[in-house]
Design goal:
Largest sheet: 4 strands, antiparallel
Number of strands: 16
Structural class: mainly beta
């Protein structure tokens, strides 16, 4: 019997366009569950900042391609400090800013691809896009790293720029097995 191990993918981005099989990869689908727009299938910190009517995640237009894109902005909120603009394809912990879950994925892509724009406000501003592929270990209740990819965003990219972030596989654990 063949068994495919599921993977979780966590994507942190300033803006992302197309990517491999990520739910709502072009950010075309948005919902308004609490009085503000959020990208369907993506965790953001808007729930944590909505009490002060400040949002780190917003819908932008026009997308590349498509009608919309995801705009992330870090915000300095009085009493809280700087709250980063984060989006996770899945769920993000609004207290620790860490991913809680992603989505099942059964392939081994060579790279995460898409398009971004980036406008750092100072020389010290650094955004990034990353991907982490893991396998959940039910026995020990931990995520086992399978592969990662990471790219810093620095300087200014005032128009859409395509990216391809190679995924470095650190484990052959995710394989089809008999």
């Amino acid at each position: 019997m063949k068994k495919l191990y599921p993977l979780l993918a966590f994507i942190f981005a300033y803006t992302i366009g197309q990517a491999q099989s990520i739910p709502n990869p072009g950010f075309e689908t948005w919902s308004n569950p609490n009085g503000y727009n959020v990208p369907q299938g993506w965790g953001t910190l808007n729930d944590a900042t909505s009490e002060v009517d400040i949002f780190t995640c917003a819908q932008g237009a026009p997308g590349n391609p498509g009608d919309y894109y995801l705009k992330l902005t870090s915000r300095n909120i009085s009493g809280f400090g700087v709250i980063p603009g984060i989006a996770v394809s899945g769920i993000v912990n609004v207290t620790t800013f860490q991913p809680v879950s992603g989505f099942a994925y059964t392939q081994r892509p060579l790279a995460l691809t898409g398009a971004w724009q980036y406008m750092g406000m100072s020389a010290n501003d650094i955004g990034y896009v990353s991907i982490s592929l893991t396998k959940w270990d039910d026995l020990n209740s931990v995520s086992i790293p399978i592969g990662t990819g990471y790219a810093n965003l620095t300087g200014m990219e005032m128009s859409w720029v395509n990216f391809s972030i190679p995924i470095d596989y650190t484990s052959d654990l995710f394989q089809t097995v008999a």
